[in-house]
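Q: I'm building a small set of examples for a reading group on sequence design. Run inverse folding on the following structure and report the sequence directly after it, with nothing in between.
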């Protein structure tokens, strides 16, 4: 059951013996496809009939530990390849992070995508939605507070605009920096998978960042990953 395995097998990567993994994400979500094996090609990530690929830059000083943890009931076989090359480590290099969370949402405002302390850059979001109705799930603005701002310095015009399309379009699309890899339907119902890679317009922060997304659940519970 590939669809189940992609959610039940968790990829964990720990750089330089950190106290906890910097990457901890189900395999399918890491490759921007959830649920299932949804084909698309983008610049940093993609899914082909043969494999998923990741071109994210993941520097480390001395070591990287990569684990696959099977949290499901079925046996899973995995084949993969990793490319490694020497680098000139400098103190201003940052570690790659990828984290995953799931919530059920039945209120309108400010669903939390990211909240963290420290220094870094936001370079992308992969969002999976389960919508129990056929209507639009994403009417709402993205808001980003950087370094303790009292008002968000980024205040967008809606999730459909952030993820690169508008008017709740059900058509699949794939581009270098944004994709809709799944829209099961009917309408905007059931599972939808969208990606936005903030590479040209990455969001730097020095102390903290808070990133939320409004939604419009129309009185129903919507699950988001």
């Amino acid at each position: 059951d590939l669809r189940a395995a992609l959610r039940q097998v968790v990829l964990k990567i720990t750089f330089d013996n950190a106290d906890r993994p910097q990457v901890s994400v189900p395999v399918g979500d890491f490759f921007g496809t959830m649920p299932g094996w949804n084909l698309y090609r983008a610049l940093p990530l993609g899914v082909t009939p043969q494999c998923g690929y990741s071109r994210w830059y993941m520097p480390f000083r001395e070591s990287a530990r990569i684990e696959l943890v099977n949290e499901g009931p079925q046996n899973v076989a995995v084949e993969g390849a990793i490319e490694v090359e020497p680098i000139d480590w400098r103190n201003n290099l940052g570690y790659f992070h990828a984290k995953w969370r799931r919530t059920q949402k039945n209120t309108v405002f400010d669903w939390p995508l990211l909240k963290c302390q420290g220094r870094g850059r936001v370079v992308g979001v992969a969002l999976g939605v389960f919508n129990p109705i056929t209507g639009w799930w994403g009417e709402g603005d993205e808001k980003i507070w950087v370094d303790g701002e009292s008002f968000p310095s980024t205040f967008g015009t809606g999730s459909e605009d952030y993820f690169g399309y508008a008017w709740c379009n059900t058509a699949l699309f794939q581009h270098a920096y944004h994709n809709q890899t799944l829209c099961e339907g009917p309408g905007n119902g059931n599972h939808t998978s969208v990606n936005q890679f903030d590479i040209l317009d990455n969001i730097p922060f020095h102390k903290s960042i808070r990133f939320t997304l409004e939604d419009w659940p129309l009185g129903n519970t919507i699950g988001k990953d």
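Residues 164 and 178 are 6 Å apart (CA to CA).
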